[in-house]
Amino acid sequence: MPLGYYLALSAVMFVIGIVGVLVRRNALIVFMSLELMFNAANLLFVTFAAYYGTIIGQISVFFVMTVAAAEVAVGLALMVAIFRTKHSIDVDQMSSLKG
Amino acid sequence: MLPGEILFGFIGLVVVITAVGMVISRNAIYSALFLVSNFTTVALLYLILGAPFIAVVQISVYAGSIMVLFLFVIMLLGAERLAAKEKLQGQRLLAVILGVVFLVELGLFGVWKAGYMTTPVPPAAATAGAPEAVGMALFTQYALPFEVTGFILLVATVGAILLTRGDKPASKDLITAVSEKEG
Amino acid sequence: MLLSETLQNPAVSLVPWVVFLPLIGLVINLVLGQRLGEKFVGAVASLAALAAFGVAVVLAVTLAGEPGVGKFHLLDWIQVGGLNLGWDFRVDTLSVTMMLVVAGVGSLIHIYATAYMHSDVRHNGDPSRYRRFFVYFNLFILAMMILVSADSYLMLFVGWEGVGLCSYLLIGFWFEKGADGTANAKAAKKAFVVNRVGDFGLLLAMFLLFWNFKSLSFDEIFAQAPALAQAAPGVVLAVTLFMLLGVAGKSAQLPLFVWLPDAMAGPTPVSALIHAATMVTAGVYLVARSSPLYLEVPAAQQAVMWVGALTALFAATIAVAQNDIKKVLAYSTISQLGFMVAAVGMTAYVAGMFHLITHAFFKALLFLSAGSVILGLEHGHAHSHNGHNGHEEDHFDPQDMRNMGGLQGRMKTTFWVYLIGALALAGIAPLSGFFSKDEILAAALHTSPAIFALLIAAAFLTAFYMGRQVFLVFFGRPRSTAAEHAVESPALITVPLILLALLSALGGALNLPKIYTLEHWLEHSLQHSLVVEFNLTVAVGSVLLALTAIALAWWLYGKRQMRASDPDPLAAPLGGLFRALQNKWWVDELYQAVIVRPYHALASWLSGPVDSTGIDGIANGLGQLTHWAAGSLRRIQTGYVRTYVLVVLFGVVLMLAFLAFN
Amino acid sequence: MTMVLNPILLMTFFPLVGAAVILFFKSEQKSAIRWTALITSLVTFGLSLWVLAAYGRQDVGIHRLWFRIAGLPIHFHMAVDGLNILMVLLTTFLTPLAVLSTWKAVEERVKGFMIFFLLLEVGMLGVFLALDLVLFYIFWEFTLIPMYFLIGLWGGERRIYAAVKFFLFTMAGSVIMLLAILYLGWNAKTFDLPALLAARDSFAAAQIPLFAAFALAFAIKVPMWPLHTWLPDAHVEAPTAGSVILAGVLLKMGAYGFLRFNLLLFPQASLQLAPWMAGLAVIGILYGAAVAYTQKDVKKLVAYSSVSHLGFVMLGIFALNAEGLSGAILQMVNHGLSTGALFLMVGFLYERRHTRLMESFGGLWKSVPVLAALALIVSLSSMGLPGLNGFVGEFTILTGAFGSAALGSPWFAGLSTLGVILAAVYLLHMMEKVFLGPITHAENRSLPDLSPRELAVILPLLVVIFWIGLYPKPFFGLIEPGVAQILAAVQSAALALH
After folding, report:
1. If you average pLDDT over every residue of chain C, what do you get?
2. pTM to 2 decimals?
3. Are C172 and C185 in contact (CB under 8 A)?
């Protein structure tokens, strides 16, 4: 099976993730879209790990996942904190930095 | 068509559909569920690519704990839906157009022109992605980064606790002192 | 000087003490004066001046024994690059003459002031300033001694500015008094600033001297002067003319004389010592000292001469119409300084110095006697107002001659010494003024008829206004209650007056025709002085002229009884001219309009429109520009994260395209 | 000499020790903090006397490789020579006096104030002593920070405006100087000043733009007309001690920069541009004097007088002869003393009346005679009365400028001499409005005269004012080697030009 298939699939996932980030206002879904993009990247890692026959790609995925877990923990905590003050998780409401 | 390609086509279709479903669902819970399916399907791909350990971790950590966390927060906040009023007119259209252009660019130059459509993935060695191999690598060569990730998780935990504590009455412990100083 | 041998006598090393002694006096008074009381302060200050006089006498005796130039190097001063200046003192007949005058007249005035200031500080309501006065006074002697004992232009300049400072301090001694309470302070400032204009000239002269002679010390400059005058006459001319500006400032000549009349705001001993006898003659001394330079450039001599002669006449005209007893004397001083400057301009240096000395005697005498008159009137005023409206603010002016009259009966000593001074000033033989003025007139006749005409006219006016003053003050009947009750001043005041009167009367003996003591004494320092033989026609003529003037004054002011409110008898016949004289030819107003106000306007314009609005406006404008630009650009920051991400994606797409097509 | 016992190093960084000690005090222990700061600065002054004693010996400096950036060596090079010894002494001399002057004036956040003050001293000493361009630049920028806070936290009503203005002006200039420094470094492969001097040829082609870049930074600091407008604002808003240091030392950093870098590194450009710089200096002299005259705020008057005085310094520097340069360096010291003392006087008045407007004073000589008399002496020194320090400086500068070959015309000095008149005009105007005349405000009637502490602040300044005025020889002696170094550079450049 050609390597390109996996790459193409990864690219499609990634772009769907991007579009998700761009079009959704619900911060949680934006967050999920980010996770989707992580996955796209992870897929790429694993694919190339198989392609080059090395373990390092998988190790990277492991680290990405760990960091993603940490990020989700903090991110969701932030979400909760923001929700407390703003009573909304609409990212368009979070525009205090408007110039 | 080879059976492998049929299988891949099927899995790929599910991956794409669940991803799109996640993005377009109105209800955040549906989105989360779509994402769980997506992660699980991607785990299948990992298996095919000879990475069983990663596949398991994907399911247990991602599809399992992380997504549970998401669902938990969605429930907690009761924020499945948003009051619908789009502020950024044209953003959606632009986003899709740019996304498509980006995809074309990636496909054209990252995949097709690079010649990856003709290079096959070699069959995976039986032991390559086995948990022992990953474990050996993690605890020998990558021991330090591994420890660091542990530390990152610790910090994230502390951070998450600190952030969700809110404005409690001042107590004498360290975290309160820190948060007061920062406030 | 040039040809004199260097004097090696150990007495020369005494010369710094003419500076140190006043310094010691002032330090003692500064530190201890407050505790030890007025008597002590006055005694210390007077002793300091007297001791300096003693030193000067020792130096004079030494010089009389072996004429020459003594030098004493006290300390290095500015030594950098080509500048090599020290605190170098110079002892020659010229400097010692000045020292004698300064310390001698100065001592007498110190003694007088111990009594005068005693009542002045009480009259003005702040006895604590008694000590301050004598500190300033000693400081003045110190600075004046530096001026006259300097061996270089720069050290002369130190004294030059130093006396200016003392003048400032003493004019502003009663800084909260005068019209509006600010007039005295303003007068002090005016004196200093106008003097600074002169100093500006002197500084430029020094720069020119330094770069052309590579030195500022007298000997080195004078030795090279003839050679340089050959090579670059323009330079020497410029030097001498810039110096003339300095002279005009310090010696109150046209066009910088305006500060001296205002300087009468100082207590009377100050007017006598600084603004009549010593400081203002520094300009004359400077020209005499620089005679080797002036001798090289006749054009500069002409300029000096004309400035002096014109000032002599100009100031004399103003003096005719003044009512303030001290103002008359002030303008008279300017006029007499004009005589001296004219004399040194004609290269009649000895005549100029001679007049300087005699003028120091009689003008100090006149001022001090005027002070005595003022004191007497103040006492009379206080006496006559005792019991009733003692606290009421009244506008009695004890210096206005219209309030006086008939004082010769009540203040006998003062009257007689005043009369001697006035006659000496008017040039009546055989008083001192006669001899010295006569030498100047003779020299003028020898040099230029026009100058002679100016000076003789001034001499006539001098006799007239002195006559007017004496008749107004001492003759007739008292024109105010204060004058009726005026009392004679105490001995501490009258004794110096009598001494000065003696000097004024006999001072002519210093340089009697045919004997010329002063001439021979000074010729060690001033070799090329113009000497004109005693001219009997001029002498007799000038005395007759003076007598005529006095007679005219008697006819106008002495013959009939006047009241305080009467207009001046000259006002009607002279009309507008008299008003011009009374208003001092509106010179102050002219300067106000031409210099002071335009400068103020310019400065306001610079600080307002130019500095705040213009330059600072540009600086702040740049800030505003940044602010505005940032304000426009910040709209890009919509605050919507999604928009930012969109832009990032756009960028990524572009970059990818760029990479791909390369 | 070992590193620790190096007097220069010890002196420069000793204030840090004091600052560290102060950190351990509680904010309320004000007097302990004050005494620590005072003693620290006094010890620093003592150490600077040690430096003075060691001055001239070969081993007094410190010169070693510090680190490399992109292969270019940065040296930790500090040394004393004729150009900076007086500046160092001035800094260490003024700092304890300034600290002592804050005893009553600064009551709030004393701790922070003193720490910033000591840090400022470190920065200033570093600027004067650094002989490596990068090291110099670090110190140069470092001085901005404490001064910014001193103005911004302890200043008057518009302190923020003034602090920001001060910061931005200085920053704008120094950024361009940094570019020039980098250019020099890349071309000569070193930032070390002696090495750069040896390698002058490597940047000979760009002398004029480089000169301009350095000159901009220094001219803003001096400040030269028309870059002076930050100064009045900064002075008016700064606390008294800040003004003293600002006028006394910080401005000198600009003039010092000209001497140390512009003249030595770019002698040819200096010669070519001397008439232009002198022209600006003359404008500054007259302009500052005129504008000072119209000020209503005494402090602003003194601030503008600084513009005028520093004009004299710049004129002397660009006379480019021994008289002008020596006079300029001495005048830098003089200005530090006289203007520093004037600011102290204004501060004393402000502490008594909480205003600085001339119209609120008048007749003060009657109520505070000692203060008035000392203010008069200081004013006289500032207007150049012979026998006091200002005259020696001004006279040598003007003499130098009058016959300067580099300026080529006596007009510069001639016009500047007018400044002597104008200085008398504005300073006596101030004396008249503040101290003379009748007392017009009742509250001025019973002001307390100088306290012993205030006398202790002023008297050392007066001693030096008289010392320099009467016997400046030792000071000129210290300056001489530095001037000789510049003159040698200028002379060889003049030969190269013709």
Report:
1. 86
2. 0.82
3. yes
